[in-house]
Design goal:
This protein has about 290 residues and is α/β, with parallel strands linked by helices. Helix content is about 30%, strand content about 20%. It is built from eight helices and ten strands. The strands form two sheets. A seven-stranded mixed β-sheet has the order 2-10-7-1-5-3-4. Strands 6-9-8 form a three-stranded antiparallel β-sheet. The structure holds zinc ion. The site of zinc ion (ZN) has 6 residues, from loops.
């Protein structure tokens, strides 16, 4: 077990960046040259198909999985938790370190003495939710799509190591960049209104053919391209993050779930059973 208040024993700050709804193939198509400096971009699979359960899972310490064959789940979890030794620059973290609470921010804060901060974009993750446990600060950003505003608020300390969760919304529907006027966002019947009510979890589902055409393939292709464009933009913001973080900072970049752009009649994420809603990018490392 890790001794109490052992932050001096951990050498790294840890930043977990979650591009909301970002599909693996959108991420790869954007060719993010800055992000690639962290390491190899892996295709992994999310444990959940929408924002809240997926973030709970990430904050319980389980990153998107590799879908390994011929292993027991418990063995995979144990092995996966050992990665926190690399992430935090510690030597003795194991699965049982997080038991019984199974919640990474509380473990980092209470046991390892980290300063813990969350900056979230999606209102379903707001500070009143149960996710806000073990954090020194937890903030729902003013705009749902401005990672740069998060980076500008980040402060690191010499005395205490820091953990940051950044939930990034540029890759979420409607895939709008922060300087793009709202009247230029693509308007989709139904979905847009839902998003205005900031109810992320109902964005998505099986497309219904009605008299009025709900989605056409050209519009879906436009949306897919907008998500790729959002990743390109975020790659520039990640460069600013790299410039800001102290040397001893480990960064993990992933997504909470994928997104459907018309495949087999689906759009979005949430109540969808389709391989593309599980497929997410995963890349992590320390800058040399
Ligand atoms: Zn999400």
């Amino acid at each position: 077990m890790v001794p109490k208040k052992a932050s001096s024993a951990c050498r790294n700050n840890f930043v977990l960046v979650v591009f909301d709804s970002c599909r693996y193939d959108s991420f790869v198509r954007a060719r993010p040259r800055n992000i690639k400096r962290l390491g190899k971009i892996e295709r992994r699979w999310s444990y959940a198909t929408w924002t809240s359960p997926s973030h709970y899972n990430l904050l319980s310490g389980l990153m998107p999985h590799t879908s390994p064959k011929n292993v027991y789940a418990s063995e995979y979890y144990k092995k996966d938790f050992l990665c926190f030794n690399d992430r935090l620059g510690c030597d003795n973290i194991e699965f049982r370190s997080l038991v019984p609470r199974m919640y990474l921010p509380a473990f980092l804060h209470d046991t390892l003495g980290y300063r813990t901060h969350a900056k979230v974009s999606l209102p379903v993750l707001n500070p009143r939710t149960l996710l806000n446990t073990g954090f020194d600060s937890y903030r729902l950003m003013e705009k749902h799509n401005d990672m740069r505003a998060m980076v500008r608020e980040m402060r690191f300390s010499e005395e205490q190591k820091s953990f940051f969760l950044l939930n990034v919304g540029e890759t979420h529907y409607p895939y709008a960049l922060p300087d793009e006027p709202q009247e230029q966002w693509p308007r989709i019947s139904g979905v847009h209104g839902v998003f205005k009510h900031l109810d992320d979890h109902v964005v998505g589902g099986k497309l219904v053919t009605r008299k009025e055409k709900f989605f056409d393939s050209a519009k879906l292709e436009l949306l897919r391209k907008r998500q790729i464009r959002a990743v390109k933009h975020l790659d520039g913001v990640v460069e600013e993050l790299f410039d800001l973080v102290p040397k001893n900072t480990y960064i993990t970049i992933t997504a909470d779930h994928g997104e459907l752009f018309g495949e087999d009649g689906y759009f979005g994420h949430g109540p969808i059973q389709h391989p593309k809603v599980w497929e997410v990018p995963f890349v992590e490392g320390k800058l040399r």
